[in-house]
């Protein structure tokens, strides 16, 4: 069921973006029409996203692990250099909880709070109803509150180091007014985390999650 949800969620986000691309390429730009709208240089977006970790990330405490993601609130702010290019700061005021299921029946969980800086390119014109965008940047995620069954590592603490790496984004903005818009996006966070037992490294876990979300934003 989780894999089905993952596929549907990512497909929905990409479908929305594909529709936006199609609209953008099929529309004819009118150079004689001038807009009276004052360019907006800043935008903020509040939303909700679901994190979908990699299905087979590796081993934790010597056992093959399966990860199940959960949702969290998201928040971002962007400075728009011009009508197409922007710099975005994205993160979560809350934390994503990830449930861990081990091959020997052991269970656990941890929480992570990512933050990312990305450059974005927005296609089309600011006045069109749907504007797709792509982004590329760097992120780090604070992992804490690791909790595992006492039997997982003989009662020793199981921890995970800070994952960090590139982040890629694809999404679309759906203009409601010249200031207010809705957003759908999918973000891929490429990263590993070193697992440790009682502070001793025991291997790397390939997290590589997708974060699929929706939100509402405003431009200023």
Q: Would you give an account of this structure?
A:
This is Outer membrane beta-barrel protein. The protein has 220 residues and is mostly beta strands. The chain has one domain: Porin. Helix content is 11%, strand content 58%. It has 1 helix and 14 strands; from the N terminus they run αββββββββββββββ. It has one helix at residues 2-26; strands spanning 42-52, 58-60, 63-68, 71-80, 85-91, 96-102, 107-122, 130-148, 158-160, 164-175, 180-189, 192-197, 200-206, 210-219. The N and C termini lie far apart (41 Å). The model is unreliable at 1-5 and 7-36 (pLDDT under 50).
General shape: elongated
User: How do the strands line up in the largest sheet?
Assistant: 1-4-5-7-8-10-11-14
What structural class should be given to the helix and strand makeup? mainly beta
Q: Tell me the domain tally.
A: 1
**Amount of beta strand:** over 45%
Instruction: Give start-end ranges of low-pLDDT stretches.
Output: 1-5, 7-36
Q: Please estimate the helix content.
A: 10-25%
Taken in chain order, the helices and strands follow as HEEEEEEEEEEEEEE
The major β-sheet equals:
8 strands, antiparallel, barrel
What is the count of DSSP helices, taking H or I runs of 4+ residues? 1
What CATH calls the topology is Porin
Whole-angstrom Rg: 20 Å
CATH class: Mainly Beta
Which CATH architecture? Beta Barrel
Query: Count the strands?
Result: 14
Give the mean pLDDT.
Answer: 86
Give the terminus-to-terminus CA distance: 41 Å
Signal peptide: 1-22
Protein name: Outer membrane beta-barrel protein
GO biological process, one term: transmembrane transport
Keywords: Signal
